[in-house]
TrEMBL record:
GO biological process: phosphorelay signal transduction system; regulation of DNA-templated transcription
Higher taxonomy: Bacteria, Pseudomonadati, Gemmatimonadota, Gemmatimonadia, Gemmatimonadales
Domain Response regulatory as annotated: residue spans: 11-125
Organism in which the protein naturally occurs: Gemmatimonas aurantiaca (strain DSM 14586 / JCM 11422 / NBRC 100505 / T-27)
Protein name as annotated: NtrC family two-component response regulator
Leader sequence residues: none
């Protein structure tokens, strides 16, 4: 029985030093529905492994240049899951045991029947298919587990939209540009994208491009060769190469110089880097995620950032809203930070009382999530009991201030008291702070106005 050739027919690399055997096996395998490729000798077979990425390798054992066992070893380095079938005319128990120990899928003795070989190849193809399906299933399970247990914390609509976008782009290899103010969690989102990607089992490298001078930054990014500059006493692998098959996160990409931007553009376009002082490039298979708190389009207009690099980075844009625009996330973030602090300190988790939580909700958080975390760490240290009150928070958080009539913060359902307070504040401002005229405008007695101001704690208005 023969099988029709299909788009997903198994690709078989046949390695032998006898042309007649290569020709006959190529005809046989093509007739039986496989996609055969041939290599004359072990050396040529090893060279073709990386380019062809075959589903199955069928190789002779005894060849004058490179042995079948060496082909087996090379195949396993390129793809640990590829089934390798060894053929030999001089089979011994010892050689069979060695082949199995080296990871061979099967060991067949020449001469063999065609139907016997085809049956072995079909089992190898099925084995390969099952291994691939199992790997996909494992990755999906890991993604779901990470999605459930490591999803960045937040419940606001704007934050959930960010996470949905991150989850959509994670399985791809697209470059992602993450924007947002300092402290909004750009690296957290970058790590989340990496964790949900097919590269999750490989490295996640990151660098803050604004923290290093240009010469040192280029060495960290691309590596250098010994003697390329003073202090280069040995070769150094750059982070692009170290993140090969993984993810490289370039934080504060807007801080890079034009010279570095040119080299970054080459790395993204050509998928290769040239170490400092080297003359040959190094190929890299690295997914790049970048982040900035700058407006890069404005930087382009001012000549501070290359437009071609921006468009190369901005394949997928993910913008993180500031914390003041997602106040609904403050309680759950605070709960998470306090729980983590308790775990690290091996003590009972502390809780916020109503006054402390109100202060957190009312503050504008210019430093965003990072500032919130630091404020709660301070509160945990200063609080003697298990309940955190407002006086344990930094003064800037608890200091009373007049709320502006227009704010960047996403609107929440206001209470009647909040509406009344805002209206009184507006009238007072219009009357230049004169409480008697304000009371007249409000249609209430001055004493009533004073009582309301005293209740609100806004006597200074």
């Amino acid at each position: 029985m023969t099988y029709a050739l299909s788009d997903d027919a198994p690709r078989v690399l046949i390695v032998d030093d006898e042309t007649s055997i290569l020709d006959s096996l190529r005809i046989l395998l093509k007739t039986e529905g496989f996609v055969p490729f041939t290599a004359h000798g072990g050396r040529q077979g090893v060279e073709q492994l990386q380019e062809l990425r075959p589903d199955i390798v069928l190789t002779d054992v005894r060849m004058p240049d490179v042995s079948g066992v060496q082909v087996l070893s090379a195949a396993r380095q390129v793809d640990p899951d590829v089934p390798v079938i060894l053929m030999t005319a001089q089979a011994t128990l010892q050689s069979a045991v060695q082949a199995v120990n080296e990871g061979a899928f099967y060991y067949i003795q020449k001469p063999f029947r065609n139907d016997e070989l085809v049956a072995i190849l079909r089992r190898a193809a099925e084995h390969r298919k099952l291994r691939a399906e199992n790997q996909v299933l494992k990755q999906e399970i890991r993604r779901r587990e990470r999605n459930a247990s490591q999803r960045p914390i937040g419940r606001s609509k704007s934050w959930l939209e960010v996470l949905r976008l991150a989850e959509t782009v994670a399985p791809t290899d697209s470059t992602v540009l993450i924007t947002g103010e300092s402290g909004t969690g750009k690296e957290v989102v970058a790590r989340y994208i990496h964790d949900l990607s097919a590269r999750t089992d490989n490295g996640f490298m990151s660098i803050n491009c604004g923290a290093l001078p240009e010469s040192l930054l280029e060495s960290e990014l691309f590596g250098h060769v010994k003697g390329s500059f003073t202090g280069a006493v040995k070769d150094k692998t750059g982070l692009f190469a170290a993140a090969n098959h993984g993810t490289f996160f370039l934080d504060e990409i807007g801080e890079t110089t034009p010279s570095t931007q040119v080299k970054l553009l080459r790395a993204l376009q050509q998928r290769e880097v040239i170490p400092v002082g080297a003359t040959e490039s190094v190929s890299v298979d690295t997914r790049v995620l970048a982040a900035t708190n700058r407006d890069l389009e404005e930087e382009i207009k001012r000549g501070g950032f290359r437009a071609d690099l921006f468009y190369r980075l901005n394949v997928i844009a993910v913008h993180l809203p500031p914390l003041r625009q997602r106040a609904d996330d403050i309680p759950v973030l605070a709960e998470s930070f306090l729980a983590r602090s308790a775990t690290l300190r091996h003590e009972e988790q502390k809780v916020l009382n109503e006054g402390a939580l109100d202060a957190l909700m009312a503050y504008g958080w210019p430093g965003n999530v990072r500032e919130l975390e630091n404020a709660l760490e301070r509160a945990v240290i200063l609080c003697s009991g298990n309940t955190i009150s407002a006086d344990a928070l930094p003064e800037r958080v608890t200091a009373r201030r007049a709320e502006p009539l227009v704010s960047e913060r996403a609107p929440v359902s206001p209470t009647l008291e909040a509406i009344e307070r805002a209206y009184i504040q507006w009238v007072l401002q219009n009357e230049g702070g004169n409480k008697s005229r304000a009371a007249d405008m409000l249609g209430i007695d001055p004493s009533t106005l004073y009582r309301k101001l005293a209740r609100y704690g806004d006597a200074a208005l």
